[in-house]
């Protein structure tokens, strides 16, 4: 039975946003679970057959790629959006949150009177209690029966890939999204990079150890006049993906140790050595003195392209590729190359680094309980997992954005050699850079051989063993506890991290800092994550 307008208003009013910006979801009373969802015959097509014969319009809430905004304000207006409608037979009305406000607008959407048919968002970390709670709250549908009956393409993939199958369901076995799946060669895309032209000029090799990095950064400062030899983006923390930190067999986050136990790196005894290293480098002017102010990409661009910095940790395409394109126009010798994640001893394998999982929760879509046409929504979503749909999502429109050469799709000159727009801008018009579809290993945004080499170099770590999965699911009560404790812990940790590096707090205060974090409940959080990890491993 549908809620009255008064009941809906009460639900909206009752849903509140915590100080940490996490929502407290309120149980919706309007619809049943996935098995009892409304069954309206929205189409006359069999599952797996396209285009679907339907007159219905679906609604989708999802972020729009920032590159696409250069051309159109809505995904439906793009060549990709129009082609997807043509190939699936389904018209879709998209709503895009304002860039930088997705989390706040997601919270408001969940508290609203009416949800769209599908929502693309991270249902693990952005909804307290995760997907299990979102299902219990009657916000999204469990998809087991729908996938079984209406999504033959995704069903086949899950049957063939047991690891993926384990990732995209809850501890109780409920499927809840159509997943974004990264290809095997798309798991590593960020790492240390350094000015090779500077190294050549100074007759230095690409550094691999902490000591070699010290020698190189000192030379950049003293012989190249770099005001910030090493710099990095700062987004609530020093965004270096545990480069340098991992050399001490710890991490600046929760991680999994060699025995499979969850640990909080910032209170490890060896983390004191990390802080001492950064303090020394900062005091000697080797680390950007304004590192905590580098909160936007433009600041980082100016330092990397303005001869102020010679090394950083950044993205493969959005960092290395973009800087190479711009830097070479001004200085043909400008060259960035990947450096391995550093270790203490020569020849060691790095303990941790950046490595994603094949399942990316942030780019995945759930079907909401407010949809009147769940079967149609599932059929539409399943198209991306078909052979033809995968080509559209990865490469765009054949004959326009890509052509088949020797049996493999390749982007056309229109995409790769556009005089006005870069590769990523052109690709954003014809494909969906992120979203619920299987990534194709043949797709590459790399425009320089240095980028191809970087993937291999950054992959030489043990990150696969030590990075915490993004899709473990604490229970509802556990999530409340984590949200309450983690916000304060993370804030205090970062405040002290910066103070230690800048010398505003002596390193000798490390033990007091650890005791303070312990008193704030870090052991409770670690225990919750350990139990969630154990449940995940038993799925």
Automatic annotation (TrEMBL):
A GO MF term: maltose binding
Signal peptide stretch: 1-25
Tree of life domain: Bacteria
GO process annotations (BP): maltodextrin transmembrane transport; maltose transport
Keyword Transport: yes
Pfam families xref list: SBP_bac_8 (PF13416)
Keywords recorded for this protein, A-Z: Signal, Transport
GO CC terms of this entry: ATP-binding cassette (ABC) transporter complex, substrate-binding subunit-containing
Start and end residues of each stretch annotated as Disordered: 29-50
InterPro entries: SBP
Keyword Ribosomal protein found: no
Similarity remark: Belongs to the bacterial solute-binding protein 1 family.
PANTHER family named among the record's database cross-references: MALTOSE-BINDING PERIPLASMIC PROTEIN, MALTOSE_MALTODEXTRIN-BINDING PERIPLASMIC PROTEIN
Protein name in UniProt: ABC transporter substrate-binding protein
Provenance organism: Paenibacillus tyrfis
Organismal lineage: Bacteria, Bacillati, Bacillota, Bacilli, Bacillales
